[in-house]
Amino acid sequence: MGIFLAFVLLCLAALGGRLFTVQITQSAMWQNKARIQSSRTTNIVAARGNIYSRDGVPLALDVPSDTIAVDPEQVADPTLVAQQLQPVLGLDVATLETAMRRETYVEGGRSRQRRWRLIAAGVDANVASTVASMGLPGITVEASSKRAHPADALAGSLLGVVTPGFGVQPIGGSGIELQYNGILAGRPGKLIDDRTGSGIEIPRSQQVDIAARAGQSIVLTLDEAIQYDAEQTLLRQVQAQSATGGTAVVMDLRNGDVLAMASVTRAADPSAVARVAPPGALNQAIGLGYSPGSVMKIVTISKALDKGCITPTTTFQVPDHMQNGNFPLRDDEVHGIETWTARDILTHSSNVGTAMIARLCFTPSELDGALRAYGFGRATPLGFTGEISGALLSPDRYYTTGLASNAIGYSLMATPMQILDAYATVARGGQSIDPRLVRETIDPSGTHHELASHVGARVVAPWTAAAMRGFFANVVRAGTGTCAAIPGFEVAGKTGTVRKSGAHGYGGGYYASFVGFAPATAPRLAAIVVLDNPGSQYGGKAAAPVFAQIMTTALARMQVTSPADDTGAATQYSDAKPLRSAACNVPLPQPTVPSSVNAVDQNGESPLPTAAPSVAAHTTAAPGVARPGG
Fold first, then answer.
1. Sign of CA dihedral 185, 186, 187, 190
2. C-alpha distances in angstroms, 61 versus 122, 147, 161, 222, 411?
């Protein structure tokens, strides 16, 4: 009896010790395990920040939407539930039934049942309400969000797309949405609710474990009216010229702000209609790499002046053709041997004259250094997602043709944005400036945080830049760029016409471009227009009229007036041609401006909301350079 009693006491002591361990020592651990088994944790999606234009127009907003999901473990008859949901959601029964089938997966070496599967995202509120009222076991309606674009396709390829999510934070998939996802996305939270043994949610058991933090909003440098005009003008010209596409960029020279960045696409089918590039499409301004042609003569001539190899009065005996290695190099304009200065060579867009300057003033390494000084061969400071750096031919591969071909814009690859940056540098007196697309951010409390603009390196001396501005003004006044002229303003710029490069050399179409700035004597805005394979192949005919229209709108929008120095500037050139001559054969009607455009103040700005609403190709020296040059 004594032994039995001792045994019972020993068992009770062991049980008591175990109870003490479970209830006291290991209490927190067992409570946590019980909570894991009887509760579910879901993510609280943080509100994504909005994107605005510089004038306060919302371009991308986060708006509430609902998501329908299913816990397959709670669906007893997937076929029946699928048939009930089909007329409400508009999805086929087979798809719904598949989503509701139970699925086993392995986690941590253990077999588990998948307890959540997405059925539909971005659901209309009325549909979500109908589904919720049906009270189907295992079917849940969760609050979520989706991206809305109040200005429709405006700046679509620049803004980009957002990949919707359920239970996870939506993320930017391209464009601004991707580049600034870390700022826009915010931080998701966590919600915990208790469940019965069969997985049913216990009413009023939800509690926030981690609060969601909304993302910051972004204010772009884009001006909605200038962006709209750039897109519509470009759209009409691409259609009229049966071009494959085109791009246009407008920049404020004071601070590098990109006021417009437009892309237009058109299918190769002759009957196809041009359209503004949608979200997710190629942003041609920074993603199109091409041999730009004559617009690159800015590098050769400005750097030759800057190093003192030539002066504005140095003359050359320029024929209309010359030998470049084993291949001929020709001017587009047939002429005899002309006595031309650098200004004349630019005015007539002479390939031969530019090549003569390059041979006189540069070794391959020196020309390569000049190109890199202007920013070619590397991505712009925009740092934009999808931006390419272009490509420069290594000087040791120039051989006998590379010096001349690089000097006139062949045998290299650049983007429209890089070219615009080079002209902006000359317009600003030889001092580069970093382009920027984001002006400021707005935190969830409504506080604005302005982003500073950055001045870059000096590329050429002020007197060199001043001489080049005069040369480019003469291109518009008396040369290949007369269709870029704007009444009341002196415009400076350069045309470019280049054959497309392919696997078998140059051919198979053209790129036509015009890049310039205004007013010529006191530059305020710069712009570039590039058309892909237009019917009228020359930059002076196809791209220059588009530049004139876009720049006219931008100057008015930014309230830029013509300096006194511009008045009567045509009289300084005896060979000046009339403004907007008959050669400008592409009529471009004045576009309408969307009603959402606000009035601007003297700085081209309007108030922004004080708080965020709740809601590369391989290149080689060209074996021969084609005729086009202007």
1. negative
2. 14, 6, 12, 16, 43
pLDDT at 267: 81
Query: In three state form, how does the secondary structure of 332-388 look?
Result: CCCCCCEEECHHHHHHCCCHHHHHHHHHHHCCHHHHHHHHHHCCCCCCCCCCCCCCC
Please tell me what DSSP assigns to residue 21.
I
Contacts of 10 by beta carbon, 8 Å cutoff, 6+ apart:
none
d(CA 519, CA 565): 10
- As a whole number of angstroms, the distance between CA 393 and CA 386 comes to 22
Q: In whole angstroms, give the CA distance from residue 274 to residue 267.
A: 7
- The pLDDT confidence band at residue 19, using thresholds 50, 70 and 90, is low
DSSP 3-state of 8: helix
Name 552's bridge partners: none
CA 100 to CA 521: how far, in whole Å? Answer: 70
Give me the helix-helix angle, 224-240 and 544-557, nearest 10°.
160
pTM, two decimals, is 0.81
DSSP 200: P
pLDDT in tens, 178-232: 999 999 998 877 766 655 544 455 554 455 556 778 899 999 999 999 999 999 9
Which residues fall within 8 angstroms of residue 366, CB to CB, at 6 or more apart? Answer: none
